[in-house]
């Protein structure tokens, strides 16, 4: 297992984990070019991290966009950001960053389980989700977004 070095506030990986965690748990999702909730990139994304890191947060948000983990788009004439809806590939890339951030701030890491990501609740289940269960959770999420 790869050892992740202790992150400090302001480290690029720490900032990326913060951004992804904030977007995921505020349910700011985008999928297939369609987005519902979002955060203003310039004015709101840095909130709760520190104004002195504002430019670094914007730069790391653009890096996440380049990597396909977030999408940046115009909303009311301003840049806004949403996380790309967590598919298996996105989970594989994003979850280690989020967990490294959570570990650095003294929080419990997220389970690699789509249920916890979508619902915000830890799973009691010990086996992976079946394809049918994954479809069910994706449908539930789509219905919730369309309300």
Description:
The chain is 45% helix and 14% strand. With 147 residues, it is an alpha+beta fold. It has one domain (12-145): Arc Repressor Mutant, subunit A. Strand 1 and strand 2 form a beta hairpin. The protein is globular, with a radius of gyration of 15 Å. The N and C termini lie far apart (42 Å).
Helix and strand layout, with pairings?
Elements: H1 12-25, E1 29-31, E2 34-35, E3 39-40, H2 54-67, E4 70-75, E5 78-84, H3 88-104, H4 114-119, H5 131-145
Parallel strand pairs: 1-5
Antiparallel strand pairs: 1-2, 3-5, 4-5
Can you write the helix and strand succession as a string?
Answer: HEEEHEEHHH
| Computed structural class | alpha+beta
Q: Give the proportion of residues in helices.
A: 40-55%
CATH topology: Arc Repressor Mutant, subunit A
Biggest sheet character: 5 strands, mixed
CATH class: Mainly Alpha
Overall morphology = globular
Question: How would you summarize what this structure contains?
Answer:
By secondary structure, this protein is α+β, with helices and mostly antiparallel strands. It has helices at residues 12-25, 54-67, 88-104, 114-119, 131-145; strands at 29-31, 34-35, 39-40, 70-75, 78-84.
List descriptors.
147 residues; alpha+beta; Arc Repressor Mutant, subunit A; 5 helices; 5 strands; 14% strand; globular
């Amino acid at each position: 297992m790869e050892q992740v070095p202790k992150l400090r506030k302001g480290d690029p990986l720490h900032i990326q984990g913060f951004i992804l965690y904030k977007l995921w748990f505020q349910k700011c999702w985008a999928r297939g070019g369609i987005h519902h909730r979002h955060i203003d990139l310039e004015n709101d994304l840095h909130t709760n991290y520190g104004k002195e890191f504002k430019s670094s947060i914007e730069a790391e948000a653009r890096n996440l966009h380049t990597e396909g983990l977030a999408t940046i788009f115009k909303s009311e004439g301003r840049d806004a950001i949403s996380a790309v809806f967590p598919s298996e590939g996105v989970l594989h890339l994003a979850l280690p960053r989020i967990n490294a951030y959570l570990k650095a701030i003294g929080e419990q890491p997220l389970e690699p389980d789509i249920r916890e990501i979508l619902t915000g609740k830890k799973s009691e289940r010990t086996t992976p989700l079946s394809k049918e269960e994954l479809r069910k959770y994706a449908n539930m999420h789509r219905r919730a977004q369309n309300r």
